[in-house]
């Protein structure tokens, strides 16, 4: 059973659309990460959350600890936002590394 | 700061060969980890370290060895390469357990 589920798996949208990517987890966590991976590229950390909401430019990340759910929103999407977005959680009492990763959401923004 | 430097970017091995993937960070991070990324699967932890001299196994440690003699370096050794080890490998570091992650650029490894 995968403890971190992302939806949708794949998303294609038009430039300018508002994008939402979801992450649900089944156990208690101490932190949640949103990561971005461009095709053939490395992985970049976008946000780390333990509560509430964070915003950076056109990206917004929210987390609801009670509902065990986080969302990543992209406003005014652009083709350069095309990437795989990965959710990772640090499980409460999950050991020194303790990170569990979702399988990622593959986002394509068409011009 | 260079961040996390991972080498090589690409490598092709024959079955049975050994090699070392290098990972170095210049941010004085205590936590370092090695992951592999396979199609249709999330990143999976191979080995990790919480400081110099301390390492532990992750989810998929078989066939890999690590050491952490300094805070900066965390090499991953493939002892006898197998086709099942064909994957993309990422090294990552962070200051503490609940801190932001920094990743290396990845190594695409093919074992023939």
How is this structure best described in words?
- The complex is a heterodimer of chains A (111) and B (112).
- Chain A contains no helices and eleven strands.
- Chain A has strands at residues 4-7, 10-14, 19-25, 29-37, 43-49, 52-56, 59-64, 69-74, 83-91, 99-101, 105-110.
- In chain A, strands 2, 4, 5, 9, 10 and 11 form a six-stranded mixed beta sheet that branches. A five-stranded antiparallel beta sheet of chain A has the order 1-3-8-7-6, with no helix packed on it.
- In chain A, a hairpin with a 5-residue loop joins strand 4 and strand 5.
- The mean pLDDT of chain A is 92.
- In chain B, strands 2, 4, 5, 6, 9, 10 and 11 form a seven-stranded mixed beta sheet that branches. A four-stranded antiparallel beta sheet of chain B has the order 1-3-8-7, with no helix packed on it.
- In chain B, 36% of the residues are buried.
- The chains are: A mainly beta (111), B mainly beta (112).
- The A-B interface holds A 2, 4, 30-31, 33, 35, 41-45, 48, 50, 86, 88, 90, 95-104 and B 31, 33, 35, 40-45, 48, 50, 56, 58, 90, 92, 97-106.
